[in-house]
Amino acid sequence: MKPDKSELAAHQLWTVDVAGYPVELPIVPIKPDFAISLMMVIDLGVRFGEHVGRELAARLAPLKPDIIVGAATLGIPVAIEVTRALGQDHYVILQKSPKIHLADALEQRISSITSKGEQRLLLDREAIPLLAGRRVVVVDDVVASGSSLKGALELVRRADGNVVGIGVILTEARDWQEALGADCALLHSLAHIPQFTRHGAGWVPIPETFL
Ligand SMILES: Nc1ncnc2[nH]cnc12
């Protein structure tokens, strides 16, 4: 179900405090009786981007990462802002669409609750030397099913990267706990959001989707 702009405007909002920065997220149905509070990090402005970069970097710096890896699409601004806040320059992006230079990329299949069907993550073979034997932190905007992060971790490990941490702006519900398994211990998050079920004309959080 794809919300159009007029529907979004009428949506109920969910407020979440992201490490001291409150944001109001529209509650968007993705099935008739099931909704998520949608955080489009690219629509929240540069101050929010700078804030989450600084707050995640403060939590991730003690892990002494050599390089940050971000998964397309919305992990890209997170990777850039965390890299900037750490005072580093280079980062590695795992792409979703095969750009012209990615014909021979390492590939991992994933699925997502906010995008249709099966997708894949691609690692440019040229970027392997930036990861092999290095301390790697993987970042993303939201972890929900855990499929995208799990695929990203697998790709980094196939490139012989040593994953020392995972950083996300938001954890959402709890499905990711099963998908990530032991890798949950590596996870740093700035805030948590529940998922929602219908209640009369509106939406209420599903109790089991809180942490
Ligand atoms: N709540 C959410 N906002 C943005 N992207 C998401 N991906 C999964 N859940 C999401």
Automatic annotation (TrEMBL):
Phosphoribosyltransferase domain ranges (all copies): 61-177
One Pfam entry name: Pribosyltran
SUPFAM superfamilies named in the record: PRTase-like
InterPro entries: PRTase-like, PRTase_dom
Tagged with keyword Glycosyltransferase: yes
Taxonomy, superkingdom: Bacteria
UniProt keyword list: Glycosyltransferase, Transferase
GO molecular function, one term: glycosyltransferase activity
Name this protein carries in UniProt: Adenine phosphoribosyltransferase
Species for this entry: Mesorhizobium sanjuanii
